[in-house]
DNA sequence: TCATTCAGGACCAAGCCAGTCCTGTTTTGG
DNA sequence: CCAAAACAGGACTGGCTTGGTCCTGAATGA
């Protein structure tokens, strides 16, 4: 596999959107602005709140706001928040030795290096790096017909989740 | 998710085992030596053959052999062979624009950087790097009771596929 | 000619993810 | 004080993917 969950993709979209405006934004408003279904936006934001990436304000006039600037949120944090700690296989360092043949396994402990390399790569890229630099408030599509806007589907509804390039 | 499929883990085990001996090895022999179920070994080796990582010899006295040394096989190639090209999301470079709202998507084209970073990391690690250096022929468990040897289960049969560390 | 071994699918069960919904709880505003 | 707005936290289900097995066919060597 080695592919991200859709929720992670949604999370990045939602967080980047949150980064466009420091005022409190409701889940419904973000859904309208991004095209992501509202229940899904709410789900993502709840996870992000638990992870401490966003702050929430309950009650009427409540909403969400980034807990820190986009540049301080590495992609790895978003992935970890949604998918759990990044561990390509069970045989990574610090994991309990659940291999029932750790003495036999010829690659014992060797996935650590791969895992660390990926973790490093993902820790070095922040959400700010994923925001198109030329995108400013003026270029946002006017929300005159939010319900008629094209919906954002990260993987294409009728195609396989992961595109097979090359 | 961001976890490897079990088949990929098996593939590394099988390939490293193949690298221990340049003579032709049968799928059954590899299964006995590694503890991986024989049908699964066969499946993995067929995929590896198609990918060109191993050479096969059909017929009686046939078997498999590495097509190139372990040091010339990056982990990325193994993953690509089993899971298809590494593409975290559908929004990676070269993929068809199947997002039905590419104009809206605020992270359009920005997963490329993440994807490239991971690809680079995986391309820089070879199977030789995953072979325990101190493991030589003498340290191999004697195959006197191959059927009684502990089986290799990369993720632990009774636990979740990916260990949640920390 | 026969046993051995790989080739290439088809196939099925199990597990996981995505997405929705429902019921609280908190806060604002009239 | 009440009602509406908005988040909190689960439960639930349908669909998809993966894992693992098996079966038939082709090639090779004895």
From TrEMBL, chains A, B:
Pfam family for this entry, one: Rrf2
A single cellular component GO annotation: cytosol
InterPro entries from the UniProt entry: SUF_FeS_clus_asmbl_reg, Tscrpt_reg_Rrf2, WH-like_DNA-bd_sf, WH_DNA-bd_sf
Gene3D superfamilies assigned to the protein according to its UniProt record, in alphabetical order: Winged helix-like DNA-binding domain superfamily/Winged helix DNA-binding domain
Transmembrane segments: none
GO molecular-function terms, A-Z: DNA-binding transcription factor activity
Name of the protein in its database record: SUF system Fe-S cluster assembly regulator
């Amino acid at each position: 596999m080695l592919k991200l969950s859709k929720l992670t993709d949604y999370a990045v979209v939602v967080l980047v959107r949150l980064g466009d405006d420091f005022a409190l934004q409701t889940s419904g408003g973000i859904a309208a602005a991004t095209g992501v279904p509202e229940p899904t936006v709410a789900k993502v934001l709840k996870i992000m709140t638990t992870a401490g990436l966003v702050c929430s304000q309950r009650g009427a006039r409540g909403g969400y706001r980034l807990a820190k600037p986009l540049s301080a949120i590495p992609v790895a944090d978003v992935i970890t928040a949604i998918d759990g700690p990044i561990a390509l296989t069970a045989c990574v360092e610090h994991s309990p030795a659940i291999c029932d043949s750790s003495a036999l396994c010829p690659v014992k402990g060797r996935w650590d290096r791969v895992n660390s390399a990926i973790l490093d790569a993902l820790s070095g890229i922040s959400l700010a790096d994923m925001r198109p630099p030329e995108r400013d408030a003026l270029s946002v599509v006017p929300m005159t017909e939010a319900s008629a806007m094209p919906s954002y589907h990260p993987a294409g509804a009728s195609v396989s989740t992961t595109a097979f390039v090359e």
